[in-house]
Amino acid sequence: TENPFFEVNRALLSRSRVFVLKQLTQEDLFKVARMAIEDTERGYGKYSIEFEEGALEHLVDTADGDARSLLNALELAIETSTPIWPPPEGTTLRISMADAEESIQRRAVLYDKDGDYHFDTISAFIKSVRGSDPDAALYWLARMVYAGEDPDFILRRLLILASEDIGLADANAINVVASCAQAFDRVGLPEGQFHLAEATLYCALAPKSNTTLGYFDALQTVQTDQAEVPDHLKDANRDKAAFGHGEGYLYPHAYRDHWVAQQYLPTSLAGRLFYFPGSLGFEGTRRAEVLRRREAQLAVLPEDVEEEGAQGLVWSKQGASRARWRARSESSATERLIAIRTAVFDALAPRLIDNIVIADPRSGFYAVEALRKTAEGKAFIVLSDEGAKLQLENLSKSVQDIVKPEIILYEDLHGTRGRSALDTYLVEAKPDYLILCEAARIPSKVNALLIGAIAKVNAHASKIIAFDIDAAHSSMLSEALSTLPNVSEDECAFLGRLAEFERGFGRGPTYSPKEASHAPRWDEELVSLVSGLHVRTTELHAVYLRPFDEKDLERWLDPSTPYGAEFRTRFSERERRRLQSFMQRYNKTPSWPIFITLLEFYRD
Question: What's 361's domain CATH number?
Answer without folding.
Answer: 3.40.50.150
